[in-house]
Write a structure and sequence with these properties.
Chain lengths: 408, 408
């Protein structure tokens, strides 16, 4: 099947090369296709690593091993396999990951736990070890490539390549961040795996890097949804090579810590929004701002309840300012809410205030707003200071076409 | 818009009349349509009542008042308004319900808290008190009607009338149960309100009736889903007129208590399944049996995670035995699960066992099963004795067409 490029696509940005990061791609041919499907990022000695992983109880071996290895804080290599997720393959899947780690650690002279592996694609089929081995051998001797090639190689059903960059000043030193991500196109029997990698030349202690990533993740990747389904392989990692030569960031008290964390969160937010923009069948990009909640976490859950509601998503697809469905989604979220304090706006115009429709509110600007591509929904719960912003896309015939009409 | 009759529809059954229940319908004309939209069930003195209501934090005044009134255990009347849900209408909505209660209690000479009101339809518009008053006046003097007329009068976007019956022996006395329900068709800006009412001539104490209803509800109405969205008005009530003359059922130790509870659960299960069969755009009826869970409740949550997954629902629509999506939905449920103990079957054929695909499993009977109308998915978690059965429908273009393509 031909999946059309998302109408919400963005061009791939100019990204700086990151000192200490060497990218290479190769053809492992995990599927019968003519494209690079193995990505190999070699990282300089002294690279710090941090990662966040899927909460799925059925996570892949790649996730299980990566979650453990990230604790020691150092990385020398990242390998991403596209076309086979290696998920739900038991001990044979684990063997395949361990074979890759052994091969790469021998080639680079590093520990096996400094080699990180991700895989995305068909599930239930163990990753073929011979194809992986040949692919890595080829990658070890091939010419380095740029961000666009690496991004295309990690993609599966993505309709456009997704990358984002940022920079920050740490004292007098400028550090660069570059991130790439794949995710949100799915074809049976593949899953919506989201894999994101951010590279920086900043000198950052692993513990701080992990804390900054978790904080950024909570406000970005944890605030997007396409269909509420969670992959067994979702992974976001950040690698810091220390090549920029800044004074090492050890804690939030270190000079430049806030600036670095802000730049990291900026890249995470850009990448997260790009995943939504490639959501299956997406025709509208929806921003949901929740305020007045009992806590920030409660606001996020209310926002995700709205963002995951098929009735809200289809209403937006139909360009219908159906605030009743937003009331419904707030009510079912299981979070503190008071019907008679609830206010709802579309495109900045309040349709309901304090539990009552706004009589004679001007529907014309709302209707015009809903015809656009970027939709803004604001919900005020009137209870406390908690707030969150969540991003999603609409639910269209395109989603059904991609996931039901075409067979694997 | 014309919504086609669901391909999963069932004919309306023959239901016995229930002594002590008098049904009447009238034209309140809550919308500009030519049909009865007010249903009035008059109940004999001595009728016990029980009810379960939506857990929405934004519930309607009907739900708020009903939830309180049911505690005193007696009922003399039920009024159902179709075409206006009276939800999200603040104090004016509450006034409308209280006006109906006052009018009916005066006519019947009963307490206002013995008059139960439900409403379904457009939200954000207070129920017009004059139309309700005139409708009730008409209903008070019109000829009684049968189950089919009452069922049609409570419906909104339902594509077929849904009813179910059962009987039970209590000692030597045969008691009858008859239930009607509306739900699961939705058109913007209406919501998928499910309203169900069961009537019986059995003599049952209110406390036992409530307990039996809650127990039945947990295994029936709480185990169905169309799209995971929860109405602000969902209500299921049971009325027991005591006209059969059986020895009063006071507790689980009373003779016939188990038989009555089983018959009540039977009616609930039939009605719940009929709601799924009228799910928007439904083309397949899906039964999900979860076993081996840590507890029954955990099994139900895993089942609902599968049943609510858009990826699973679209796979079934596409007649694709995509067990990888079932793995994903188990993993994201937030319940105890072990990837390497998980087994999945379609139509009785195991596709995956103990965390691994079944090599060379016979796909032919599975493919044939998926082409049918009734789909069976079995999931064994391999952990404990917890089990549950959940029912849902597939996710098709019909759902998008009903909820996005047509505007309110």
């Amino acid at each position: 099947m031909d999946i059309q490029r998302s109408p919400l696509a963005r061009p791939f940005p100019e990204l700086p090369s990151i000192a200490g990061v060497t990218l290479r791609v190769a053809r492992a041919q995990y599927k019968t296709w003519d494209r690079c499907d193995l990505t190999f990022a070699e990282l300089a000695e002294g690279t710090s690593v941090a990662g966040v992983f899927t909460k799925s109880a059925c996570a892949s071996s790649e996730v299980e091993l990566g979650r453990e290895a990230v604790k020691q804080g150092r990385a020398r290599a990242l390998i991403v396999n596209a076309g086979n997720s290696n998920a739900f393959t038991g001990w044979r899947g684990r063997e395949a990951v361990e074979a890759i780690q052994a091969q790469v650690s021998a080639a680079l002279g590093c520990g096996v736990d400094e080699v990180f592996v991700s895989s995305t694609g068909v599930i239930g089929v163990p990753l073929p070890k011979d194809k992986a081995r040949a692919g890595i051998e080829a990658a070890l001797v091939t010419e380095p490539c740029g961000w666009a090639d690496a991004t295309n190689a990690i993609g599966t059903t993505d309709t456009f390549a997704k990358g984002a960059g940022a920079s920050a000043m740490i004292g007098d030193t400028r550090v660069e961040l570059a991130g790439i991500i794949k995710g949100s196109g799915m074809i049976a029997p593949d899953m919506a795996t989201m894999l994101g990698y951010i590279f920086t030349d900043a000198n950052v202690a692993p513990a701080f890097l992990q804390e900054a990533l978790e904080r950024a993740n909570a406000a970005t990747f944890s605030c997007i949804t396409v269909d509420g389904d969670t992959s067994t392989s979702d992974t976001v990692m950040v690698f810091a090579t220390a090549k920029a030569g800044n004074a090492r960031i050890e804690s939030w008290d270190s000079p430049g810590a806030d600036a670095f964390a802000a730049a990291l969160a900026d890249v995470c937010r850009q990448l997260a929004q790009l995943v939504v923009r490639d959501g299956e069948g997406a025709a509208k990009f929806i921003t949901i701002r929740v305020s007045g909640a009992a806590s920030d976490d409660s606001a996020r859950r209310v926002g995700l309840s709205i963002a995951n509601s098929p009735l809200v998503k289809t209403a937006i697809a139909g360009e219908d300012a159906n605030w009743g469905r937003v009331v419904m989604a707030v009510g079912k979220a299981g979070e503190p809410a008071d019907r008679d304090k609830l206010s709802i706006a579309f495109g900045g115009v309040w349709a309901a205030r304090n539990g009552l429709p706004v009589e004679g509110y001007d529907e014309a600007p709302v209707a015009a707003h809903l015809k656009g591509e970027d939709i803004d929904i604001a919900v005020d719960l009137g209870l406390g200071d908690g707030r969150a912003t969540v991003w999603t896309c609409d639910l269209t015939h395109g989603y059904i076409a991609i996931n039901a009409d075409y067979r694997s």
